[in-house]
Amino acid sequence: MTGYASHELTTPNGALTIELRSVNHRYLELQLKLDDHLRVFE
User: Fold this and answer.
1) Predicted model pTM
2) Beta strands in 1-42 (DSSP E)
3) 2 pLDDT higher than 90
4) 6 within 8 A of 18, measured Cβ to Cβ
């Protein structure tokens, strides 16, 4: 099963974009792209 979803949120503090992609794989692989000041939330 494959799938894709994205959502964008804009607040007075900035913008947040979330993209989710799924492809037929046996294992879970996560990739996060964050600014340096947001890495504490990883």
Assistant:
1) 0.52
2) 3-11, 14-22
3) no
4) yes
